[in-house]
Amino acid sequence: MYWEVLLLSFNNLEITTLEYVGYAASIAVAVSFVMKDIVKLRIVNIIGCTLFVVYGFMFESIRAGLPVILTNVAIICVNGYYLVQLATSKKDSEVIEEPKI
């Protein structure tokens, strides 16, 4: 009986595109936190943050979405910065690597 009522209530929900984008962004950010590889973590987090920026622009007024937009743009910049740092440090370490004899 409980499951029938629960299923009926879910069937009557009309999820908007705004909500789908918000849920997708939340899932992507949450999944990024269980990644062991820091590069994958940052890439998945950037995807989630980008979805949150899109989500922020989808609000009826830009004023309502601005906090979401600004915060996630800042996080994208931080993630991008550290990805570049990781990429350049790997290139530097490959150049400095001693030859194996």
Task: Provide a descriptive summary of the structure in words.
The chain is mainly alpha-helical and 101 residues long. The protein is 80% helix and 0% strand. It is built from 4 helices and no strands. α2 (17-32) runs antiparallel to α3 and α3 (38-57) runs antiparallel to α4. It is elongated. 14% of the residues are buried.
Rg from alpha-carbon coordinates:
20 Å
Helix fraction bin = over 70%
> Distance between termini?
73 Å
- Helical region count? 4
Class by alpha and beta content: mainly alpha
The average pLDDT is: 85
Largest sheet: none
Which stretches of 5+ consecutive residues score pLDDT under 50? Answer: none
Strand tally: 0
- Percent of sequence in beta strands: under 5%
Please tell me what the overall shape is.
Answer: elongated
Question: H/E series, N to C?
Answer: HHHH
Short descriptors:
0% strand; elongated; 101 residues; 80% helix; mainly alpha
What is the topology?
Elements: H1 2-11, H2 17-32, H3 38-57, H4 62-96
Helix pairs in contact: 2-3, 3-4
Task: Sum this structure up briefly.
The chain is an all-alpha fold.
